[in-house]
Amino acid sequence: ADIAAFVCYNEAKRSNKNEKFGEGSLIGISAPESGNNGVTGGALVPLLTLGVPGDAVAAVLLGALIIQGLTPGPLLFEQNPEIVYGLFSSMIIGNILLLFIGLAGIKFYSRIVEIPKTLMIPAILILSTIGSYSMNNSLFDVGVTFVFGIIGYIMSKIKMPSSPIVLAVILGPMLETNLRKAVLMYEGSYSFLYTRPITIIFLILTALSMVSALRKKK
């Protein structure tokens, strides 16, 4: 959900040059929320069809299905269709209810922006500190939080986008882990980077994305 939200915000910002992002732009609000909500259904696709969870929540659901003696995958559709269609129905009903709840409480929810910054900022700082400490019960993590908070503040002042850095922090460990696995599978060789078709396609797409970004910036 974090990755989807930041990717969608970044793409919306890149494709809408006339919008004033960071000042309450409707596109800037709707884009990450759409990506965030889209993750739920997208994560269930590999879970139900292949038995591979798409995110942490789907992994919990996978464990729940296994405990009940069910095996996610193609056979689940054949042997227990009521489970699959029950999930589909619950998602449809949930989204409809979310629409009505959102419309009914929109006036109340919008009042959140009226909370004074003198109350909001200390509350955010306290919650961030507690969250960073509770991850590993380490004060070092709290220090890292404050250092990157200062870096983020400086970036906002010099108008440097933070979305790419946040994405890198989230995706970096995943990239490193899978790169090590691939190198071990190829006995220490990096040849898979230029011999496998899928890898080559993704490298080309990455290069095109970078070139496109640089051209637009110019």
Q: What coarse outline follows from CA principal-axis ratios?
A: globular
Decide which structural class fits the backbone: mainly alpha
* Low-pLDDT windows of residues: none
| pLDDT averaged over residues | 85
Helix content: over 70%
Sequence of secondary-structure elements: HHHHHHHHHH
- Please report the total strand number as a whole number: 0
Quaternary state of this entry equals: single chain
Query: Mind describing the biggest β-sheet?
Result: none
Number of helices: 10
How large is the share of residues in beta strands?
under 5%
Our measurement of the CA-to-CA distance between the termini, rounded to an integer number of angstroms, reads 32 Å
CA-atom Rg in angstroms: 22 Å
Compact summary:
The protein is mainly α and 218 residues long.
Plain-language structure description:
With 218 residues, this protein is mainly alpha-helical. It is 79% helix and 0% strand. The radius of gyration is 22 Å and the shape is globular. The chain starts with a helix and ends with a helix.
List keywords for this structure.
10 helices; 0% strand; mainly alpha; 218 residues; globular
Task: Give the helix/strand layout.
Elements: H1 2-15, H2 26-50, H3 56-67, H4 74-79, H5 81-109, H6 117-136, H7 139-157, H8 163-185, H9 192-195, H10 197-217
